[in-house]
Amino acid sequence: MRLMYNQPNLKTKRKTLRQNQTDTEKLLWQYLRNKQIRGLKFFRQYSVGSYILDFYCPVARFGIELDGGQHNEIKNKMYDKKRSEYLKQQKISVIRFWNSDIINNLEGILEKIQEKLG
């Protein structure tokens, strides 16, 4: 199977997700946009294969996912695990944060992102 980025069949879904960002996505995006971190370009709602990442930097092959409480549900944990395994096979590293961490510790989150980017 050929790896596809931003597949056309997911365009409408990606656009809808961008238009309906969560408050925590909006907050983090203020720090990721315009190459503010290490001069790297991040994209919102970027698809890799059939999965859509909240934020993705193609140059670094690095994704960021923000999780709400629904990610504690068993079926969502299984989906997230399958997704993480797929992305790892594509040599894409992903870091996950809880929405509450973005709200309560944004500075710490930004430091962790910087560290992961080397």
Automatic annotation (TrEMBL):
UniProt-recorded Gene Ontology molecular function terms: methyltransferase activity
Domain of life, per lineage: Bacteria
Record's keyword terms, sorted: Methyltransferase, Transferase
GO biological process: methylation
Listed name of the protein: DNA-cytosine methyltransferase
SUPFAM superfamilies on file: Restriction endonuclease-like
Domain called DUF559: residue spans: 10-117
Organism, as annotated: Candidatus Buchananbacteria bacterium RIFCSPHIGHO2_01_FULL_44_11
Cited InterPro entries: DUF559, Endonuclease_DUF559_bact, Restrct_endonuc-II-like
